[in-house]
Design a protein that fits this description.
Layout lengths: L27 H13 L12 E8 L2 E7 L10 E4 L2 E2 H10 L9 E7 L4 E7 L6 H6 L4 E2 L2 H7 L5 H22 L10 E4 L4 E4 L7 E2 L4 E9 L5 E6 L11 E4 L6 H13 L3 E12 L9 E10 L13 E6 H10 L2 H16 L30 H10 L6 H12 L4
C-alpha cells in the first residue's frame, strides 16, 4: 500500500503560508494593535471594529481544544474532528466567568486568512480549571495532539490543514512556557511582536529570543544490493512496531555527517552515500523540545554486521523488501484512523474508551500482523514505503530520480 500526500502531517499550514507586510491590517503588529482596542473597549458602550475578525484556539497542557461531528458526504458513521475556535468575545466571556481578565499578552499570533479577513490566535489556559466544565457543556474537549494526528484523514486537505495549525500553535505555546527567563542574565522575558518572539525585561540586556527548532535526522539505511532495509525498535514503541533510525544533530555537524554518526553509534553500521528525501515539522515530541524538524534521508550501508547499542535501541534488524511490503499492506492504517476519530468523538461527548493503537493493526483474518511501521502521519512511513515500492533494479540513481520528481509537494 503506497499513500501519496500533498504535504507531510504538520506541514502545509494554510494560515501562515505568507507573512503580511507590517502595514497590512492582518500582519502581527497591526493585528496586535487592533486586538488591544478590541479588549479595552466595552462592546456595550463602544463596539469594537468589525474588521478583522479574531478567532482564538485555547490549549490546556499542550492539548488543543477540539470538537467532533459527522460531515455531510463523509464516510457513514465516521466522525471528523475540528479545532475548537472561539470568537474573541466568547473567549473573553468564558475566562471572565472564571474570574480571569483576558489580556493581549496572553494571546499568540498564529496567522491569518486574507480572503476571510480573519486573524487566528492561540492561548494557554492550563491554569484555568474552571473552563473545562463550561467548554464540555458545549461539546468541546482538550485532546492530545498525537491522538488528533492519528485521527486525521490524510486524504482530507482541510483536516490536514487544521492539524498543521494545531501543531504550529502547540510548538509556539510550549516554547513560550520553556523560555520564561533569559538565558543570558536570568531575568524574566516578555512577549514581543504578538508572541512571535520574546525579549529580556532587563534594560541592560534586552536579549531577543526566537522560537527554537531542534533538527533531527531520520534515515532508512539500505544494504549495498538495495534488497534490505535496516529497521529498529525502541523500548517505548508499541508491540511489533519497527521504524527508521533517528537522532539529533550536534553542533558543528552537517546533516549527512549526523546520519553516518547516528547510524554507526546505534547499530555499528557504516554508511556511505546519503540521499535527501524530505522534511517534516514534528511538534509532538517532549514539551522541552516543542518544535523538532525531522529531516529524512536514505543512507546506503558500507557494512552489514549489526551491533546494537542497547542504551539507545531495543533491537535492529535487516528486513527484506518483501517483508516490508507485507508490513505496509497488512497494517490497516485507515482502521486506526477511524478508531482514533471515534475516540475523539466520544471524548467530546463526555465518553472516553481506552483503545490500544497497536490492536488496530491486524490482518483481515483477525490475527496480529508480525510487524508494522508508523502510519502515514510520520515521515518514517514515507521513507519506508517509497523504498519498498521502488524498482529494485534502479538502485541509488533510481531513488535520486524518483525524489527529484516527487518530493516537491512534501
Amino acid at each position: 500500500m503506497s499513500i501519496s500526500l500533498n504535504s507531510h502531517a504538520f506541514a502545509g499550514n494554510p494560515i501562515r503560508s505568507k507573512t503580511p507586510k507590517t502595514q497590512d491590517p492582518l500582519s502581527p503588529s497591526s493585528a496586535f494593535e487592533s486586538l488591544k482596542i478590541h479588549l479595552l473597549q466595552s462592546p456595550e458602550i463602544h463596539p469594537p471594529p468589525t474588521s478583522p475578525l479574531f478567532k482564538v484556539l485555547p490549549f490546556r497542557k499542550g492539548r488543543p481544544l477540539a470538537s467532533s461531528s459527522d460531515l455531510p458526504g463523509g464516510d457513514v458513521g465516521v466522525p471528523s474532528w475540528h479545532l475548537g475556535w472561539l470568537s474573541l468575545a466568547d473567549c473573553k466571556g468564558i475566562l471572565g466567568k472564571s474570574g480571569v481578565e483576558l489580556s493581549e499578552e496572553a494571546l499568540v499570533y498564529l496567522g491569518s486568512k486574507a480572503e476571510d479577513d480573519v486573524v487566528y490566535w492561540a492561548i494557554d489556559v492550563s491554569e484555568e480549571n474552571e473552563l473545562v466544565p463550561e467548554l464540555s457543556s458545549r461539546q468541546f474537549c482538550f485532546v492530545e495532539l498525537r491522538t488528533l494526528m492519528v485521527a486525521t484523514d490524510w486524504s482530507d486537505s482541510l483536516a490536514m490543514g487544521e492539524l498543521a495549525i494545531a501543531g504550529h500553535a502547540r510548538a509556539l505555546l510550549e516554547w513560550h512556557k520553556v523560555s520564561r527567563f533569559c538565558g543570558h542574565c536570568g531575568e524574566k522575558t516578555v512577549p514581543k511582536e504578538a508572541g512571535k518572539r520574546k525579549q529580556c525585561s532587563n534594560e541592560l540586556c534586552k536579549s531577543r529570543i526566537y522560537p527554537r527548532v531542534d533538527p533531527v535526522v531520520i534515515m532508512l539505511v539500505i544494504d549495498r544490493d538495495n534488497d534490505r532495509a535496516l529497521l529498529s525498535r525502541q523500548s517505548r514503541f508499541v508491540p511489533r512496531m519497527w521504524s527508521c533510525l533517528a537522532g539529533f544533530l550536534e553542533p558543528g555537524e552537517s546533516l549527512e555527517e549526523a546520519v553516518r554518526r547516528e547510524t554507526y553509534e546505534e547499530t555499528g553500521i557504516e554508511v556511505g552515500e546519503v540521499i535527501y528525501h524530505s522534511s517534516q515539522p514534528w511538534p509532538v515530541g517532549p514539551s522541552s523540545m516543542p518544535c523538532q524538524l525531522m529531516v529524512g534521508f536514505f543512507a546506503y550501508a558500507k557494512s552489514l554486521e549489526i551491533n546494537v547499542d542497547k542504551e539507545e535501541l531495543e533491537d535492529a534488524q535487516w528486513h527484506s523488501r518483501e517483508d516490508v511490503r507485507k508490513a505496509l499492506t497488512i497494517a490497516e492504517y485507515k482502521k486506526a484512523q477511524t478508531t482514533a476519530a471515534a475516540k475523539v468523538d466520544q471524548m467530546c461527548k463526555g465518553v472516553e474508551q481506552k483503545q490500544s493503537l497497536s490492536a488496530d493493526f491486524n490482518v483481515e483474518s483477525g490475527e496480529l500482523a508480525p510487524m508494522f511501521v508508523p502510519g502515514p502521519f510520520a515521515i518514517a512511513h514515507h521513507l519506508i514505503s517509497t523504498w519498498a515500492y521502488q524498482d529494485p533494479s534502479t538502485g541509488v540513481n533510481g531513488l535520486s530520480k524518483q525524489f527529484s520528481s516527487s518530493i516537491s509537494n512534501l
